[in-house]
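Late entry, written up from scratch paper. The run itself happened at the end of the previous shift, but nothing got recorded in the book at the time, so transcribing now.
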Amino acid sequence: MVQQQQGPNFTLAWADQSNHLPTAGSGSISCTGSEPPPDVGTVSFEESGAGLINTNWNSCPPPASMPILCATPVQCPNSLASTFFNVIWGDRVPLLSEPLLQGLTWNATGGAGNEVASTSEDLGLQLVKVPAFPQGVLAAAVQSNVVQAGALGDPYGSGIRTVWWAHGVGPVKVVFQHEGGSSAPITSAYLRSTNLTPSNPPPDQDYFPLKVGIANTYRWTNRKHLTQPVVEQLSVAAVANRTARISVRSISGPVRGALKGGVIGEYGFTARLEGVTNLWGTTAARSLAKFPPLSNHRSFLTPVDMMVYGFNPLLPAYPAVGTTWKSGNPRSFKEYGVTGTTKVIGVRSVTVPAGTFQALEVQSQLSNAGHPFGSGLRTCWFAVGRGLVKMLFRHRDGSVSLVQLIK
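Output as recorded:
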């Protein structure tokens, strides 16, 4: 049950049928008078823009028959003797990285001294049948490879754990395959009953993946302002806590990179519950193209410049069809001087030189006062696992910029 809640912070409490739930704010749990110790405890969380974080836990010590998950048995604070301890084991920070999108991977630590490490992956939505939902409930399956070394109870603290998370409910099923060969134990837990009603999960496709190794090559044409196409390669160069550095370098055409290796620009992006946001950008190029001016001495040198032009976020965390957002961020307006509205149109089949993709269409009406080249209708198409595959910008000066993924 929810013991207490204050803003983004909340505490859950549990007890077996023979014990009473801990009292909110008591700060302590009575563990005396029974052998083995009673199964009673609390676990605390914080909902942040980066995901769900486990901030604290409290319970009776595990039974003497449980493996010791510390290097010494004296006052060992680690335990896997309760369902929620199996959920948070190895990935307290974060427990869930959000937005939670299919294919997402993240690293985390856990244990009392962060001596347990894990790598987790969202396997996507699955229909799960548990006693609380005998007809089945759609839940995000998160599988974690958990590693602990140096504990007396090795290898019990290591293994493969899968947790199924139902939207609006929380974890409904846990399966932990502990290490130790063919005879290794398996811990399983199922939600028996709840007064919560699951809600429809949001779309979990990742239309703008921030993963090291992604490299997309684009061709950009504008018959009015470009005498020949600009070909540039975008690559995700570094990622930490779902914040990425993206580099763009010139391949051919009238825009040449002035930085090392032909790099034209570098950009910072982050994925949070507020959406995919452009944090910063810097460019340096030798351009033979004569583009009309934009406000605040800005210019289009790469497809990324056109894609992020206007206002944040680039995409919502969960881009459902019909989602609309407007300009209004003072920082963005100061940078671009642009007002407008962006809307998620839907998924369309898009064919570009790199192939045919089922892509999310996102359309923006942009107005940059006194600068027709910076105003107009911009349509972007994003494909799962690739990001931007096509962009069409119908500028109000009568020109049309077309950006297509070619490799």
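The first strand starts at residue 2 and ends at 6.
(Scratch paper discarded after transcription.)
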